[in-house]
Amino acid sequence: MPPALANAPTLPERARRIRLHALRMGEVQGQGYIAQALGIADVLAVAYFHAMSFRAEDPAWEGRDRFLLSIGHYAIALYAALAEAGIVPVSELDTYGSDDSRLPMSGMAAYTPGMEITGGSLGQGLTVAVGMCLGLKRKASRSLVYTLLSDGELNEGATWEAAMSAAHWSLDNLVALVDVNQMQADGRSSSVLGFEPLAEKWRAFGWHAQRVDGNDIPSLVAAFDAARNATVAGPRVIICDTRMARGVPFLEAREKSHFLRVEPHEWADAIRLVEGAAP
Ligand SMILES: Cc1ncc(C[n+]2csc(CCOP(=O)(O)OP(=O)(O)O)c2C)c(N)n1
Ligand SMILES: [Mg+2]
Fold it and tell me: What is the 8-class DSSP label of residue 245?
């Protein structure tokens, strides 16, 4: 291993820093999609610091793997990862959600380096990913397209239309990541519109499907490796069961976790808890 890599932060440390960046952004607004960011931090750490090829100094490098954030409201989580990756300056995170900021509350491709698509109108990320994968294949590119969608987006018909298309075109350069945090704006996912058995559904749609604990870094590493190296034809999906607000127990306990309001004095407590969890 080259010395630079030997000194690189571990994946748990990357995940911890992603959580801290997200909490600091959350504190700027006093509220927001912080539970999603804390829940998905381990997945983002493994995506950016184990699985994906990118150049921090050249985010539009043609040979990069793409990361498509379908769920625009998770932008706070992706900004945290982009900052940790050196694509967005950490000092800029303080501008999150402010007028004229490059970091709007919902992710927009035109504003932010490293933000590949404008998400937020839910259910579209996978459709865009399918088109992008087809285009990359035509160019004989070896890049992979990762796209993060939420369990709420499983309620969208377009998601399943895209899933069928990806299998039809045998898109083995596509890796969908589904954040199953069991929550949506209107309540628990299982009461809004049930989607189980989920891995079996994706398999029936022609996908190589794995289901893992999305807060367990070794399991995620194994799943990302298997998704890349699987010799089967067709698209891959990693279904990630995550816990909202992971790492901050008093926020994990909140029922209405889709959009958290956090009292001013609680931010420091939350940051202390994550800082104290140094691996
Ligand atoms: C097409 C569309 N319909 C509705 C919304 C409003 N909306 C914003 S977030 C959200 C919840 C979606 O579920 P999920 O992403 O699983 O929620 P979370 O896990 O973040 O609580 C909804 C319905 C939207 N952004 N786009
Ligand atoms: Mg959800």
Answer: T
Domains identified in the chain and CATH numbers: 3-276 (3.40.50.970)
Give the angle 256-157-149 at the CA atoms, nearest 5°: 50
**76 C-beta closer than 6 A to ligand 1:** no
Give strand pairing partners of 180: 241
Write out pLDDT tens, residues 14-64.
999 999 999 999 999 999 999 999 999 999 999 999 999 999 999 999 999
- Ligand with minimal distance to 148 CA: 1
Phi, psi for 118 (deg, rounded to 5): -95, 115
Helices (H), the chain: 3-6, 11-29, 34-46, 75-84, 125-138, 157-168, 189-192, 198-204, 217-229, 249-252, 264-276
- CA-74 nearest atom, ligand 1: 20
Q: Report if pTM > 0.90.
A: yes
Numbers of helices and strands, H then E, in the chain = 11, 9
Q: How many CB atoms lie within 10 A of CB 65?
A: 19
Between the alpha carbon of residue 216 and those of residues 82, 113, 172, 198, 268, the distances in Å are 21, 28, 25, 19, 25
Nearest to 72 by CA among 24, 16, 132, 124: 124
Closest ligand 1 atom, residue 185 Cα? 11
Is residue 122 lining ligand 1, measured as CB closer than 6 Å? yes
